[in-house]
Specification:
The complex is a heterodimer of chains A (367) and B (112).
Chain A: E1 6-10, H1 21-31, E2 36-41, E3 58-61, H2 69-82, E4 87-89, H3 93-101, H4 103-108, H5 118-123, H6 129-136, E5 143-146, H7 149-158, E6 163-166, E7 172-175, H8 178-192, E8 196-200, E9 204-214, E10 219-230, E11 236-242, H9 245-258, E12 261-271, E13 278-284, H10 292-295, H11 301-310, E14 326-328, H12 338-347, E15 349-351, H13 361-364
Chain B: E1 2-3, E2 9-12, E3 37-39, E4 44-47, E5 53-56, H1 58-68, H2 73-83, E6 84-85, H3 88-104
Parallel strand pairs in B: 1-6
Antiparallel strand pairs in B: 2-5, 3-4, 4-5
Helix pairs in contact in B: 1-2, 2-3
Classes of the chains: A alpha+beta (367), B alpha+beta (112).
Chain lengths: 367, 112
């Protein structure tokens, strides 16, 4: 291992559907500003590459998950010939499967990671949530996995017609009509492969919990929010910290049952009515895009995940974020340079240089 | 003593619109506990358990605080007529209307 560990992070695009990587980098640097961090990207236009505040020190293009596992490991080895990173923090759902299925491949390369076991990873799969929730007495909307259009319509009818059609890894579309269901089905199939999930629509406010499991059934730290703003596709664009013992208890029972190791995000809808219950919508096996928000409130989960992966003593304790603190996402324009783009697209690697300062004409004008 | 305005309460709630948050929700959603809402003197209320927040007019604020203290209608009317220049019959009519509105937006007061 390097004297000072080098960290590799994926998922650096913060577009319409923001990925978590840049938020992870920002959180790590809050506690460990000296860390060398490299980005593993799938596109030379991932926006986090061009950020002033949370860009990696270097970036390398990865092979797409569709190219297969062998190509994935070969590319990882080729990158490590240039930049021998010690810790990998995967931030995309599609990357998780190959990693949790082959922890020995990480170990034999000397790569540290904070990952769940294959068994617990599979138990939180969207198609298995009902079994998990039955064991933990947690509510969850009825969900049916389908792989053809007839099954899609049958499933939707059995769920009352008002459903969400969801991709295997990402995305959900609310569909009320057969035509909308079919369009959503083909889109999800094309984007994320089979099966496509059909889920009962539970009305209510949405709550998310980000946390870190120790692998023995305990939550090392967590932060719960109510989504305040949502995009058209349902992504949270703002969230308010809440502290509800009922929500904490549900989260604890799920993580204890899974003996989850590593970062997670639990997504709930609290059903309407005076006795509304938290219904588990899904469990994301990684940090969410909003994971830097708790870090501003003394609950730095990415730094704690790094310490857990390396067996380090925590530099800062994890505290509970105060209810009433909230985040609002703010999209700004990043300035890139064609030379950076050229380096990444031709050689597949990019080393961050000091930014060129372009003086404003007004600043050189004498008064 | 001030003239009483009609009590109004706005519940700020997330809506599945593209980056739009509606100023008030008329649909019942998360459960509401009168005891967990912390009301500021300016009429801003925040429920740390549900993350919901509200804005209340001066008269609505008095009613909401009274409800959280478990007051009955007659006691709430006493407080309203003591604070504002309003006939008891008018205050009673406005209170009935406001309590019905609370039920409509899903903030059902406990037995009152």
């Amino acid at each position: 291992m390097n004297a000072s560990p080098v960290i590799a992070v994926t998922g650096l695009h913060r577009g319409e559907n923001p990925q978590p990587g840049s938020a992870v980098i920002r959180s790590l640097r809050r506690v460990y500003p000296e860390l060398r961090i490299i980005g593993l990207v799938y596109d030379s236009l991932e926006s986090g590459l061009f950020s002033e505040e949370d860009a990696p020190d270097a970036a390398f293009t990865m092979s797409y998950p569709g190219a297969g596992e062998e190509a994935f490991w070969q590319r990882l080895d080729a990158i490590r010939e240039i930049e021998r990173f010690d810790v990998l923090i995967p931030c995309l759902d599609a990357e998780m499967g190959p990693l949790v299925d082959s922890p020995e491949k990480l170990r034999e390369r000397g790569i540290h990671a904070c990952l769940p076991t294959a068994a617990s990873f599979k138990c939180r799969d969207k198609s298995k949530l009902a079994d998990l929730c039955e064991r933990t007495h947690c509510h969850t909307p009825q969900t049916v996995a389908v792989s053809d259009v007839n099954s899609l319509h049958q499933a939707a009818a059995s769920l009352g017609g008002n459903v969400f059609v969801k991709g295997r890894f990402y995305e959900a579309r609310h569909a009320l009509t057969p035509a909308a269901r079919e369009a959503a089905y083909w889109h999800m199939l094309e984007q994320w492969g089979a099966p496509v999930l059909v889920q009962e629509n539970v009305q209510g406010e949405e709550y998310n919990v980000v946390g870190l499991g120790d692998g023995r059934g305990h939550i090392l730290g967590s932060c719960s929010i109510r989504k305040m703003l949502r995009t058209a596709s349902g992504k949270g664009f703002g969230g308010m910290v809440v502290r509800d013992p009922q929500l904490d208890a549900v989260a604890q029972s799920l993580i204890a049952e899974l003996r989850w190791h590593g970062p997670f995000e639990l997504e709930f809808v609290k059903s309407e009515g005076p006795n509304g219950e938290y219904c588990l919508i899904e469990i994301n096996p990684r940090f969410p895009a909003w994971c830097d928000f708790p870090s501003t409130l003394n609950c730095n989960l990415p730094a704690a995940a790094l310490e857990l992966a390396l067996g380090w003593q925590p530099r800062e304790p994890l505290r509970h974020a105060s209810p009433g603190k909230f985040f609002i996402r703010h999209a700004i324009d990043m300035t890139g340079d064609i030379r950076d783009l050229a380096a990444l697209t031709t050689s597949g690697q990019f080393f961050r240089q000091p930014r060129e300062i372009i003086p404003h004409p007004a600043s050189s004008r004498s008064l | 003593m001030k003239l009483a305005s009609l009590p109004t309460l706005i519940r700020h709630s997330s809506q599945p619109h593209e980056l739009a948050h509606a100023p008030a929700s008329t649909a019942a959603s998360a459960s509401f506990d009168f005891h967990t809402v912390n009301w500021q003197p300016d009429g801003f209320g925040f429920d740390a358990t549900s993350g919901e927040f509200f804005t209340a007019s001066p008269t609505a604020l008095i009613v909401m605080q009274a409800l959280s203290e478990g007051m009955l209608r007659q006691q709430i009317l006493d407080r309203l007529t003591a604070r504002f220049e309003v006939a008891r019959s008018t205050a009673e009519r406005d209170l009935e209307s406001f309590l019905a509105e609370l039920v409509h937006i899903g903030l059902t007061p406990e037995s009152n």
